[in-house]
Amino acid sequence: MSKKKINRRQLLKSSGLRPRDIRSVDPSLWLTNSMPSLLVREQAILLNFGSLRAIAMPERVLIFDYNRKGGKAFLELLLPRLNPKNVNGGSCMPFELEVVEAALLSRIQRLEQRLMDVEPQVLALLEVLPNRLTANVLEQLRISKQTLVELGSRAGALKQMLLDLLEDPHEIRRICIMGRNCTVRKGNNEMECSVPTEKQIAEEEEEEIEMLLENYLQRCESCHGQAERLLDSAREMEDSIAVNLSSRRLEVSRVELLLQVGTFCVAIGALVAGIFGMNLKSYLEEHVWAFWLTTAGIIVGGVAAFFIMYSYLKSRRIL
Length: 319
What we know:
Elements: H1 8-15, H2 19-22, E1 37-40, E2 45-49, E3 52-56, E4 61-64, H3 69-81, H4 95-128, H5 135-166, H6 169-176, E5 182-184, E6 191-193, H7 196-276, H8 289-315
Antiparallel strand pairs: 1-2, 2-3, 3-4, 5-6
Helix pairs in contact: 3-4, 4-5, 4-7, 5-7, 6-7, 7-8
């Protein structure tokens, strides 16, 4: 490992790339090239996996911003794979394929680890809700949902990239012939090599690359599917919370309506009391029974008016 500072012209000259190729892995163009990509050129493979941006060549790999989380995770996986003691007598893949596999593995492991971290939180929230509606719990649900949306989006983009690569055999064959005296015809996609053994080795590597990509595609689909299921559960819980809150608001509205009806009936009695409280003589105040008769009339009239209004609201399905 070595650290270098090189300008764009030196990078293009050493890698045999064109300026438009570098744009796909340029960290300064973060917003325009945020989607994951794996581009195959004649002498290099350009890798863009978010925080990991690298150029893999037959004998070396250039990593941009190696101190970022993606670059550190990539190096932790790549360096042990390059140690001959770890091969254990098995077949060793070409260097650029080791780089591609380490990049895919580091990316998918980060997605899986993030999913393993957020899954227990979501399940715990689903058990608590909707019986415990507090601001803290709802905020945790919002944060978990936002994390799942981001995780599902990243896993979905990586899955689509792998699908597009598997559906393009021409790109896979271009990976196989990198560093060899071979060419691939664009018309019939046939591989031609100056040495027959190189063609046989390239064809074997093609099957190995397809199996490798399919393996990581399955892991990516599993991660994406689990994130989508958890996100659907969180959304269903939000719908349940909304229904629960609507039910509570309906109960409060019913109580408020009953109180308003009761207040209206009491106000009628207060109106009658106010009429009799005027300083005008009606000659009813001279009779003893007038007080009790008026009081009883107010009470009976208020109760009767309340039940009449209640029956009317029930018949109109307002209550």
